[in-house]
């Protein structure tokens, strides 16, 4: 752990950025289009083009059409080759072999090693499975921990390279989550990450995942964290960050649904609409806001959100039945955002996750 702490402090030495008062350059590319482009380059093993894109992302604060960073989109895409049907261990073996060939072709590539670490984290999750801890076998735990360790060692190796990438800290946050770090070390990792790149909001979302009550946090801790960090920023960045942090709870899982009502609805509403105004419509954010409006029983806001929903985001709703029920509720013929509350349908749908 001492070696990891040293790497965290030394990685960003001399690389400090300053916050932007205005949005960074926003691309017309949607997250879906960008993901397809990057994952296709990986399958083709066009490592030279991947290197060029990673370098451009390092040098520029490039954003996608929904305001998400291209850096985050790049590594999410390059760590997942397209697959169809049931995910099996052979998929990860094939993916690792592909990344190893990338490293052989570009031995000093930070992007290749950060991708490798990301793949190891997902491989660890696959081996563990999604069951409760008491349902995981000893061999599963052993395989899980071994691959988390490989991810950590890969990041330490990447820290010795000349190239510096903001995603290194995000990847280390994922490793820290699975490695069970204490809050003091996690908070210091976040602090160092934000010193390196203060506008990279994905660091906040990773930390919010860590604070989930079913993991390492306490009830109300995510909301308190969102209040704390958003209070440091002027508008509209403040409300946008509040929405981005709290929207980690926009998932149809019992613990998250219980936590979400602790948030301040007016700030969520303001943050969502500021995101739309500055970056345009986002299918993912619209799904998240629709789910939040459902939890807060705000049928007018849900109606507004569904106007921007192009398709269901499975990671938000988990259930097509719930998605369709809430959409029908939000699009009830009685709904008008100008009508008095007593004229609105009072019974929202209830579907178990």
Describe the structure.
- The protein has 353 residues and is an all-alpha fold.
- It contains 18 helices and no strands.
- The chain has helices spanning 2-11, 31-43, 47-59, 70-78, 89-105, 110-128, 138-158, 167-179, 183-196, 202-210, 221-230, 237-246, 254-259, 265-279, 283-295, 299-306, 314-317, 320-330.
- The longest helix has 21 residues, at 138-158.
Write a compact overview of the structure shown.
This protein is mainly α and 353 residues long. It has helices at 2-11, 31-43, 47-59, 70-78, 89-105, 110-128, 138-158, 167-179, 183-196, 202-210, 221-230, 237-246, 254-259, 265-279, 283-295, 299-306, 314-317, 320-330.
Distance between the termini: 38 Å
Bin the helical content.
55-70%
From the spread of the alpha carbons, the general shape counts as globular
Task: Just give the CATH class of the largest domain.
Answer: Mainly Alpha
Question: How many structural domains does the protein architecture include?
Answer: 2
Category by helix and strand content? mainly alpha
The largest sheet is: none
Radius of gyration from the CA trace? 21 Å
Kindly estimate the percentage of residues that lie in beta strands according to DSSP.
Answer: under 5%
Number of helices, where a helix is a run of at least 4 consecutive DSSP H or I residues: 18
Order of helices and strands: HHHHHHHHHHHHHHHHHH
Q: Could you list the spans in which at least 5 consecutive residues all have pLDDT below 50? A: 340-345
Tally of DSSP β-strands: 0
Q: What do we call the CATH topology of the largest domain?
A: Serine Threonine Protein Phosphatase 5, Tetratricopeptide repeat
CATH architecture annotation of the largest domain: Alpha Horseshoe
Could you tell me the mean pLDDT? Answer: 90
């Amino acid at each position: 752990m001492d070696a990891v702490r040293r790497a965290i402090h030394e990685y960003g030495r001399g690389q400090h950025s300053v916050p932007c008062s205005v949005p960074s350059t926003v691309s017309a590319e949607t997250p879906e289009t960008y993901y397809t482009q990057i994952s296709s380059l990986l399958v083709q093993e066009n490592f030279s083009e991947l290197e060029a894109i990673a370098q451009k992302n390092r040098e520029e604060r490039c954003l996608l059409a929904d305001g998400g960073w291209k850096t985050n989109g790049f590594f999410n895409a390059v760590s997942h080759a397209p697959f169809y049907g049931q995910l099996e261990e052979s998929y990860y073996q094939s993916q690792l072999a592909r990344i190893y060939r990338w490293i052989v072709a570009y031995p000093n590539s930070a992007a290749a090693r950060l991708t490798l670490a990301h793949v190891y984290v997902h491989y660890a999750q696959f081996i563990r499975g999604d069951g409760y801890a008491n349902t995981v076998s000893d061999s599963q735990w052993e395989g899980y921990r071994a691959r988390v360790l490989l991810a950590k060692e890969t990041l330490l190796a990447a820290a010795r390279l000349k190239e510096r990438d903001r995603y290194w800290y995000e990847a280390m946050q994922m490793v820290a989550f699975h490695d069970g770090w204490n809050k003091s070390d996690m908070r210091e990792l976040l602090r160092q990450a934000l010193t390196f790149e203060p506008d990279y909001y994905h660091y906040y979302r990773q930390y919010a995942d860590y604070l989930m009550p079913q993991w390492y946090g306490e009830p109300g801790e995510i909301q308190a964290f969102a209040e704390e960090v958003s209070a440091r920023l002027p508008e509209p960045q403040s409300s946008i960050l509040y929405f981005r942090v709290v929207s980690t709870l926009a998932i149809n899982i019992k613990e998250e649904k219980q936590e979400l009502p602790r948030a301040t609805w007016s700030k969520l509403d303001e943050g969502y609409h500021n995101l739309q105004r500055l970056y345009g419509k986002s299918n993912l954010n619209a799904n998240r806001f629709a789910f939040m409006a459902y939890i807060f029983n705000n049928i007018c806001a849900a109606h507004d959100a569904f106007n921007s929903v192009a398709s269901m985001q499975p990671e938000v709703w988990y259930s097509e039945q719930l998605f369709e029920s809430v959409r029908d509720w939000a699009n009830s013929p009685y709904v008008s955002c100008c009508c008095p509350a007593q004229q609105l349908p009072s019974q929202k749908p209830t579907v178990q996750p």
